[in-house]
Structures
1.
Amino acid sequence: MRKWVVLVALILGVVFTYNQMAEINSILATLRRGDWRYLVLAFFTMGAWFFVNGWLYHHIYIAMDMQESPWRLTTLSAAGEFANIIAPSMGMSQLAVFISEGRRRSLPSGRVSMASLLYILVNYLAFLIILTAGLFVLERRSILDTAILSAAGILACATLMVVFTLWIGARSENRLAHLLIQVSRPVNYLASFLSPRVPLSEIKLRNFAHHASTGLQIISARHQNLYFPLILALANKLMLIAVMALMFMAFQAPMTLGAVVGGWSVGYLFLIVSPTPNGIGVVEGLLVLALRHMNVEAGDATVIVMAYRGFTFWLQVLVGFIAFRLLEHHFFPSQNSHVAPEMNDLIPFDPDSSLTSASQDSVESVYNKYPDETTLNQT
């Protein structure tokens, strides 16, 4: 990644952490009061959660005919989550991390972007499965209100939008390119006030659409390869629920399965739809309120939520910061590539590339489709 991007990200991370020092001190004071055995178990559960995230990306990459180490994808995932927290932009910060590192390893940004969309989709679907059970618990306890239903509706709409985008890409490369060109026009118009250079040219977008559509067509032909990523996404969510249950045990609070699943579902739902980074300042209050409605004492609910957020949010910030530093220093060496920075999406055939042979054939076809553009860029 570019040095100035890394520097800005690290500065934002330090400023963000400094502004939240009061909350961090409160969480540390709370954790000291808990049973260390359950806290250690929660720590290792979160460690497994990070690796499951990496394996989830790994299997999506395989399904899209890309090769990447699961350990490196674990680091990328943690760094991407860190970028999302310090620079919230509806997931675009995380996507930028994957695209930047993908280019360094000669992976087309179109296919990397679709892999990230598939990651979002399987996570949304996994959560919707658990949310169904959570809403059932809330309904049984007569605490299901309009705000929760509205948030669930927003999540359902977001899921449908992702499905629609992926469906267009799998059905027609030209339709996806047309959609991208239409969306890029207001972006290019606003960017024209800052620079005369067009950031999203039609050639780049059509090339992006080609790689994206090729990857999605591979998925469409082997849709069974997405079953295991969905299972991993479910395991990912169950680990977070386990951390919530361990917080009940660590602070010796009375616990029921309904309280854990129902409370966690509300907290995670508003984490997704919240306008603040990772739901900070919103999730805490709503989660305490949800647990109170589940007949958890106010004092217990407060310490449980603070400790839970310490593991699921602040530990994520710390690990993400370390992952970002590893990527900055190229802890994972890139493959040998003769692709110029401006040609990262138009990748020539290279037997040492990260793409498999089936993908190389599709990449070569870009030169046949846009011979003038590739020749012009090479000169």
2.
Amino acid sequence: MIRSITILASGVGLAQVITFAALPALTRLFEPSDFAVLTVFVTTVSAALPFICGKYETAIVVAQSEHEARDLAALCILISGALSIVLTLVAVAFEQPVNDWLGCPQLGGWLAVAPFLVWLGAVTAVCAHLANRRTAFGWIASSTVLQAISAALVSLLMGLFGIGAVGLLVANLVSVALGAGLLATLTRADFVQWCQMRRGTLWSTAYRYRDFPTYNASSSIVNAVGLALPVFFLSHLCGSDTIGFFGLAMRVGWAPLALLSNAVSQVHLNRVSEFVRSGQSALLYLMRSLAALTGIALIPTVLMVGWGPVLFSKIFGSDWQVAGEYVAIMMPSIAIQFIASTLSSTCCATGNNRLAFVWKVLAFLVTISFFLSIATGCDPQEILHRFAVINSCLYLLYLAVIIYAVRNPRPL
């Protein structure tokens, strides 16, 4: 397991180093309003991505046979393609009203491009789970690094030519496309074998793993929209500069934790699935992982809470000190969310999808109720202080749900 985490973490770590190395230049080439457009666009894509495959991609790792795993991969590609077409039609029909509500007219026609990026993200997720099943973690790491390099280079090039927000959007599109293409190439053998084998089992496999779309996908819709609410409402309530500062704050706040989050999460799903299949308890393993993640999260939390504004001002320029103030407010909440999110695949691996669904609905209702109660023109820092407290409480509850799930595994 340590070797697997090391491989993935090395890829993510190198990607983060590349991204961080480019950020000081990018914050001087682009305005906060440009970063605001990127933040809203990426958040829109991220809100749709978790459910675009019906969560069948998660079942690829826990599938009982290679035949079923390939069926699930093919099913994900078909579902995501169909849903992306529907989302494109919706985006075209409601482009202007959505842009007006978000207070982000610079987004323009790019809202209609978002479903294509969602589909590319789906391809990446499916291929990453196939690689995970084969413990080919180096493939996932390579894709992550390629995305970081291409995003940084294209962004810098666009910034030097003064292209503005569109340059950041183009860089995002190019990087996602290259990452998806690399993983699709590396896992193409699985899709070739699926095309050659008997495909009459596709729908029976879909039915066997129906709990994933029934509970995981529906809960992912709720969870993804809930995670996007802060960006959407802050954009609506406080304007583009605020969301630009918030976007950079969240990116930097998450960066040191993302070094391990994705890596540990994918390996964790594989490891807990093995415990469940063998009939062993994964509780001790979970508690050790929880303790290790807590220790890791403390380091950036103390750093950002104590010196966030000063560090942001020196590294990214004096114009971005406000972003440092935002990350100092949000960092404790980010740390708790990181721990719970990294271990959240426990519910899937132990067959407790319904329990996770209940928490996600609760979190969504609490979050949207909070933002609906805020009037336009409120102080952004006051909003973030209150939201940080609520978000921390919700994710502490999620950790309790995860511990219950590993104590009480259910048959898939």
